Amino acid sequence: MRQKNLLVTIAIVVVTLISSCAKDDFQETVGLCPVVTATNPLDNTTNVPLNQIITVTFNEEINPATINQTSFTIVGTSAITGNISYSGTSATFTPNVNLAPNMTYVGTLTTAVKDLNGNALQQNYNWSFTTGATLQPRVIATNPTNNEINVVLNKVLSASFNMPMNPLTINASTFTLKQGVISIAGVVTFAGNTAYFTPNVNLTANMIYTATITTGASNTAGTPINNNYVWNFTTGTSIAPKVISTSPISNENGVLLNKVITATFDMTMNPLTIPASFTLKQGANTVSGNVTYAGTLASFTPNNPLLENTVYTATISTTAKNVAGIALSNDYVWSFTTLNNSVAPNLGSAAMFGTFGGNAGVTNQGLNTVVNNGSISTTAAATLVTGFHDATAIYTETPLNKGFVTGAIYTAPPAPGTATSFAIATQGLADANAAYLSISPASLPGGTDPGAGELGGLTLAPGIYKSASGTFNITNGNLTLDAQGNPNAVWVFQSAGGLTVGIAGPTGAKSVILINGALPKNVFWYVGSAATINAAGGGVMTGTIIASSGVTFSTAGNVTQTVLNGRAISLVASVTMVNTTINVP
After folding, report:
1. CA-to-CA dists, residue 539 to 474, 518, 535, 560, 568, angstroms
2. Is residue 6's pLDDT more than 70?
3. What are φ and ψ of residue 39, in 5° steps?
4. Strand-pair category, 72-75 with 90-95
5. I need a surface site. Which of 170, 253, 401, 581 has the fewest CB within 10 A?
6. Interatomic CA distance for residues 552 and 365, integer angstroms
7. Is the pTM value of this prediction over 0.70?
8. CA atoms in the 13 A half-sphere facing the CB of 155
9. In the 8-state DSSP scheme, what is residue 324?
10. In this structure, are residues 495 and 471 in contact, taking their beta carbons and an 8 Å threshold?
């Protein structure tokens, strides 16, 4: 019986100790009693900001009712007031006013703090921290700078601080601008560490202005700048902008039909004022277009090609203003005349040839090659023309390679070439070279590239087109040329490199289609290297091709007829045809 009573007594003592959350050395029992695990600031921290919010974190949830001004205190020279809140396992003390500089504060949590089970801190928890010195905000940069001259009249002023400021203290009362004793009205904004003053109207030319940031401007800790910050600047003269150059120039003739009209100013302009100020007219009719502006250059791009042999008048009106809001003194007006696009390049004696193989010859591979309404030629020997015959002679034909020329064949000797035919060939090559130069970018500048080198799938008005990459392709579809009712409309395509028409495969052939009065005789291809026309066979190519280094139609073995309504002229290399029909315009 005595042993049983002893066990009961021991059990009662153990339960009592556990429920009181204490050991015999009076240390907290983690997991049973509330314990402070962290504070911010930490114990003995120095240079604490004056606007510090103080937090305490516990090891478990605390009864919020026990966290109050009595159980959670911050004391400097005296206890400070503040707002206490609680969330999760953390209590937050937000002082009602900034802490004092260079002051040591003691934080205390008393044993009145209890957890949700009513267990209390076993002893008061104390820690201390020391605030730093008062950090004074100051202006570190302005725009304009102090004593700056020639400031633009639509200037937005700015002042940058060395630290974040209280945006509510940056306003029209603390950031002011005056011209003499006259206050300038404006809008004050603040972003980052920079304050901005935007005057309601442009400043006056040749005037001294005084800007001020007053001591009403404070940082986020409530500390103001030491003294008013004052600086001065002088505005520039009121110089009206002017147009200094145009393209086309005034009274220029022969302007391309796809010309982008430009005007260059002598100073930077307000981009918002340019579109409405830049107009183009043909007589009384306004031309629709898109106006852009970059740097000092305004550009007018007509929505449609200009009319040929027509006078146009461009105007930059006084609606155009510079960045200071100063307008042109007068409308700037100039006129120009477009190209007479009814005049095609002169081929001279080369116009009679459907094919010219430079000094390298002409080759036919197939039984269905024919040159209608024209001749073929080369300055090479007659032996370098193979697979052809005309009405008077045969040039190395075989049973599988027979091509007919309705005109004549002109070569150098030996027979059937003669000195006379060689002279005709020599003149033809000279005229072809002259025509090649006449349609080059040097002679006809300003060409555009509407499809980044790919002409397939496009419909193009008359004009000059130059490949930006150096090659032209017609591979994504057919190319359509629209004369817009003008049978004299001319197209010139310039490629510094090659020309490729068509893609591989039985349906790979592509064509150049003429509509609305367009004629093959008015289509020209300047090719800097070689041209390959429908290597898979088929298709209808159009125009006079003048290539530096050869022209090839179809591929050996193809029986599908390939058609050229035009001419294939190579200045150096040979021309090769496989079952090809050339209709000379």
Report:
1. 11, 18, 10, 9, 15
2. no
3. -135, 155
4. unpaired
5. 253
6. 11
7. no
8. 23
9. T
10. yes
Distance CA(568)–CA(124), nearest Å, equals 104
- Provide mean pLDDT across the span 103-108: 96
Phi and psi at 14, nearest 5°, equal: -60, -45
Tell me which residue has tokens 């606007």.
51
Look over the chain and give the mean of its residue pLDDT values, rounded to a whole number.
Answer: 91
* Per-residue pLDDT tens over the stretch 9-68: 444 444 444 444 644 343 444 458 999 999 999 999 998 888 899 999 999 999 999 999
Q: How far, CA to CA in Å, does 435 sit from each of 341, 448, 466, 505, 547?
A: 16, 21, 17, 34, 11
pLDDT confidence band for 254 (50 / 70 / 90): confident
Report the greatest alpha carbon distance in the chain. Answer: 151
Please tell me the distance from the alpha carbon of residue 546 to that of residue 523, in angstroms, as a whole number: 11
Q: Distance (Å, rounded) from C-alpha 529 to C-alpha 413?
A: 28
Closest C-alpha among 329, 307, 303, 325 to residue 316: 329
> What is the rounded average pLDDT of the residues 96-119?
93
On the question of pLDDT at 106 being above 60, the answer is: yes
Dihedral sign for Cα atoms in the order 285, 288, 289, 295 = positive
For residues 493 and 471, the answer to whether their CB atoms sit within 8 Å is no
Between 343 and 90, whose confidence is greater?
Answer: 90
Tell me which residue has tokens 């005296």.
Answer: 78
| Residue 351 identity | A
**144 token code pair:** 């304009």
Phi-psi region of 168 (alpha: psi -120 to 50; beta: other; left: phi over 0): alpha
Residue-wise DSSP of 152-201: -TTPPEEEEESS-B-GGG-STTTEEEEETTEEPPEEEEEETTEEEEEESS
CB atoms within 10 A of CB 582: 28
| CA distance linking residue 53 with residue 73, whole number of Å | 13
Residue type for 64, please?
Answer: P
As a residue count, the chain comes to 585
**Which amino acid is residue 201, in one-letter code?**
V
Cα 126 from chain centroid (whole Å): 62
In this structure, what token pair is assigned to residue 348? 């001279």
408-432 per-position pLDDT tens digit = 999 999 999 999 999 999 999 999 9
| Interval 135-189: pLDDT, tens | 789 999 999 999 999 898 889 999 999 999 999 999 999 999 999 999 999 999 9
Distance separating alpha carbons of residues 59 and 33, to the nearest angstrom: 9
Residues 363, 578 contacting (CB under 8 angstroms): no
Give the pLDDT confidence score for residue 134 in this predicted structure.
67
Q: What is the amino acid identity at position 518?
A: A
